[in-house]
Amino acid sequence: MSDIRVKICGLRTADDIETAAKAGAAYVGFVFFAKSPRHVSLEDAAELAALAPMGVCKVALTVNASNSELDAITAAVPLDMLQLHGSESPERVTEIKARYGLPVMKAIGIADEADLPQIDIYSAVADQLLIDAKPPKNADLPGGNGLAFDWRLLAGRKYWQRPWMLAGGLTPETVNEGIRMTGTSQVDVSSGVESAPGVKDQALIESFTRSALGKQG
Length: 217
Ligand SMILES: O=C(O)c1ccccc1NCC(=O)[C@H](O)[C@H](O)COP(=O)(O)O
What we know:
This protein is of the alpha/beta class. The protein has one domain (5-213): Aldolase class I (TIM Barrel). Helix content is 31%, strand content 21%. The protein has 7 helices and 10 strands. The strands form 2 sheets. Strands 7-6-5-4-3-2-1-8 form an 8-stranded parallel beta sheet. It has a two-stranded antiparallel sheet with strand order 9-10. Helix 2 (42-51) links the parallel strand 2 (27-32) and strand 3 (57-62). Helix 1 packs parallel to helix 7. The longest helix has 12 residues, at 202-213. It binds the ligand O=C(O)c1ccccc1NCC(=O)[C@H](O)[C@H](O)COP(=O)(O)O. The ligand O=C(O)c1ccccc1NCC(=O)[C@H](O)[C@H](O)COP(=O)(O)O binds at residues 9-10, 29, 31, 33, 36, 38, 61, 63, 85, 130, 132, 141-147, 167-170, 188-192. The ligand O=C(O)c1ccccc1NCC(=O)[C@H](O)[C@H](O)COP(=O)(O)O is lined by residues 9-10, 29, 31, 33, 36, 38, 61, 63, 85, 130, 132, 141-147, 167-170, 188-192. This is N-(5'-phosphoribosyl)anthranilate isomerase.
C-alpha cells in the first residue's frame, strides 16, 4: 500500500470519477470558476459528487468566492473539503473554515524563493496547503495551467506544519520525480491528465495515479 495520496482536479464526467476512484485517487476536485474549461454547474457537481465512493475526498475549488457563492456550493454539493485558489487572506481562510465547518486547503503559488514565506503564513490557518506554480502574469486562470515550478525550492522542506500537496504541471512521466525531489506525500494534477483543456483522458488518469502510487502498468 502506497503512502502517496493523489488528487485529480477538474473532473466533469461520471467516467472521470469512476476512473479516478478505481485507479486509487484519494481526492477528486470540482472547479467552480466560470472562466475555466473545467467549470461545473452546481447540478452537475452534485451528481458527480454522489458518484464518488466513500473514502474519496470531494473537494470544491473556488477562487475568491463570496459567502453567497460558497453558501450555494455547500448547500448543493456533498463535499469534504474546500480549496481556495484565489488571493484569499489568512483572515478569510479562518472565516470560511468557521462558517462552513469543512477543512480548507489553501493554494499557494510559487515562482521563486520570495514566495516561500506564504507557506508558513497559511500553515497557521489552513488545514492543508496546495503548493502550485504561480500563474503567469495575465493568465486567465490562477491554476490549472500545466506549468511546473522549480521543485528544488521545496527540497529538504518535507515537514511543513500542515499536510500539503505538490501541484503544477505534473504528468504521468514527471510525478515520481516531483515526489522524489520534494518529499511530498500528496500530489495534484489537472492538465497532465487531459487530452484537451477541460477534457480528462481516462488512460492518463490511470497512468498518473498508478505511477504516483507505485503500481505496475
Ligand atoms: O483547473 C482549473 O481550471 C483552475 C481554475 C481556477 C483556479 C484553479 C484551477 N485549478 C487548480 C488546481 O488545483 C490544479 O489542479 C492545479 O493548479 C494543477 O494544475 P495543472 O498544472 O494543470 O496540473
